[in-house]
Amino acid sequence: MNGQSYSVALLGAGSEVGRELAAVLRERAFPVEALRLYDDAPDDQVFEDDESGEEIFPLDDIDLTGVDVVFVCDHPARAAEWAARATPSGALVLDLTQALAESGQAPLVIPEVNPGAIRAGLEHGVFATPVASATALAVALKPIHSEAELKRVVATSFEPVSIAGRAGIDELSEQSRHLLSGVTPESRIFPQRIAFNHIPQVGDFVSGGRTRGEWLIESQLRSVLELPDLPIAVTSVVTPTFFGQACAVHVETERALDAVAAAALLRQAPGLLLSEELPGYPTLADVIGSEATHVGRVRDDLTVPYGLALWVVIDGLRKGAAVNAVQIAERALRARA
Predict the structure, then answer these.
(1) CATH 3.30.360.10 spans which residues of the chain?
(2) How far apart are CA 78 and CA 58, in angstroms?
(3) How far apart are CA 197 and CA 243, in angstroms?
(4) Cβ atoms of residues 236 and 213 within 8 Å
(5) How far apart are CA 37 and CA 14, in angstroms?
(6) CATH of domain 6-130+321-336
(7) What are residue 308's DSSP bridge partners?
(8) Are 187 and 178 in contact (CB under 8 A)?
(9) Which single residue of 16, 72, 121, 127 has CA 20 to 30 Å from 103?
(10) Using CA atoms, how far apart are residues 30 and 10, in angstroms rounded to an integer?
(11) How far is residue 132 from each of residues 34, 64, 159, measured CA to CA in Å?
(12) Cα–Cα separations (whole angstroms), residue 52 to 27, 32, 74, 101, 127
């Protein structure tokens, strides 16, 4: 980036997103001088990351002295504590739990959508990444808004069990085995059986009958698009898939923009890949491992004067979390140099 190398701490290194982030740091050749990995460890024992071979230390032994960049991947309740310990010495803090954004301590950032928030966030050195579905929607809708001005957004997000971490992955695996063996499965992580099922509930219910997951997508999408009054209605569904988020989206715009013109905009949009060859849509299986937001089935919605419908898919652990955080760190370090 600028010839410098940095001391990096990764908190929650044993989580699914923590492991993905460690891999992304290696793959993008982030200039790491020293990497400190922390996570909950049984009996305060040091253990080792399977992929990197790096030692992972207990969070209770955390030492942020001399650290330049801190990635927070787990324990949202402690994100503010860690930020308070890291920032006085000038460290950048990247919160992937959204806790600091909810408390107003950090701006939500997607580099392709609101890069100006990076420079604004340098004052305090704390940044946050949105949830994966909000990231996917924002990247896809930003070019449409820039051209025709969004009037209303209605979306259904299809969420994988990995939104609940390793426990969610294990529950789907266990329930699937039990059902195929004729055994009645137990539901401990999700409110209903998830194997061979769909659950229209992501998080607890909040005001108005929405779930917390739906509220997060709506509020975070307004934030990164800088459209605080945009009408957005989201229905979030947990699906029996392990990784990857998908969204079926209908938008109404203030000005005319047909599907052909919208596709031309999306084709040129940063961080986005448009599926155009038949069958013309990406699936979760197609995007796992990709750093892009994928869009397909762009078509006119004839139920409103100016309407579009589209299908958006993203690797939630990768671009929806790890890559986005590393991109923010890269740009923030360049801006601060």
Answers:
(1) 133-316
(2) 14
(3) 16
(4) yes
(5) 9
(6) 3.40.50.720
(7) 251, 300
(8) no
(9) 16
(10) 13
(11) 28, 28, 9
(12) 12, 14, 19, 30, 26
Rounded to an integer, what distance in angstroms lies between the CA atom of residue 79 and that of residue 10?
12
Q: Which amino acid is at 171?
A: E
Owner of token pair 């975070």:
220
Distance of alpha carbon 175 from alpha carbon 169, whole angstroms: 10
**Which residue is associated with the tokens 């890949």?**
273
Question: What pLDDT, in 10s, does the model give residues 147-175?
Answer: 999 999 999 999 999 999 999 999 999 99
For every residue of 133-159, DSSP letters joined together read HHHHHHHHHHHHHHHH-EEEEEEEEEE
Residue 214 in 3-state DSSP?
Answer: helix
> CATH 3.40.50.720 in the chain, residues?
6-130+321-336
Measured between alpha carbons, how far is 306 from 267 in angstroms, rounded to an integer? 20
Q: How far apart are CA 282 and CA 284, in angstroms?
A: 7
Q: Looking up tokens 């923009």, which residue turns up?
A: 257
Which residue has 């966030």 as its token pair? 121
Its pTM stands at 0.94
pLDDT in tens, 180-224: 999 999 999 999 999 999 999 999 999 999 999 999 999 999 999
The percent of residues in the chain predicted with pLDDT above 70, rounded, is 96
The CATH number of domain 133-316, selected from 3.40.50.880, 3.30.360.10, 3.30.450.20, 3.90.70.10: 3.30.360.10
Helical residues (DSSP H) of 114-258, grouped into ranges:
116-121, 132-148, 165-180, 212-225
Amino acid letter for position 318? R
From the list 97, 106, 92, the residue with the least C-alpha distance to 75 is: 97
